[in-house]
Amino acid sequence: MTVQAKKFIAPGDVAAMRIDCTRCGASLSIPISGSIRIDRLYGCPNCNEPWLKLPSGASLDLEVRNCVAALNELAQRLKHKEYGGFNLHLEVRDETQALTVEK
Ligand SMILES: [Zn+2]
Fold first, then answer.
1. Distance (Å) from CA 52 to ligand 1 centroid
2. Is position 44 within any domain?
3. What is the 37 CA–ligand 1 centroid distance (Å)?
4. Into how many domains does the chain fold?
């Protein structure tokens, strides 16, 4: 028998944004509840591998700002009882969760 577990997370349960450097393996976890110095994420603080801003000038600056702002705004607005008619969760993809149970 194969059991598949689905994982869900509410917007208000997202605590931090994590960046893992694919070059040196450094990890950075930044709480999303406060202000984020996006310019500090342009490159890895350990090895200088470009992260949010590429040498070409292309950048994910705006997308990351918008994503964090939208998560925080959604979490705040979902707290109000006027939206009490539903619960909103994001489904997290996790292909490693397939579990085979011997019977
Ligand atoms: Zn690095």
1. 13
2. yes
3. 18
4. 1
Return the pLDDT at 5.
87
pTM to 2 decimal places: 0.80
Q: Which residues of 3-13 are buried (b: 16+ CB within 10 A; e: fewer)?
A: eeeeeeeebee
The H or E element that residue 76 is part of is helix 61-78
- In the reported structure, the alpha carbon of residue 39 is separated from the centroid of ligand 1 by a whole-number distance in angstroms of 16
The reply to whether 45 falls in a domain is: yes
Structural domain range at position 49: 13-88
Mean pLDDT of the region 29-39? 92
Ligand 1 center to residue 49 CA distance, Å? Answer: 5
Q: 75 lies in a domain?
A: yes
14-23 per-position pLDDT tens digit:
999 999 999 9
Residue 101: pLDDT above 80?
no
100 within a domain of the structure (yes/no): no
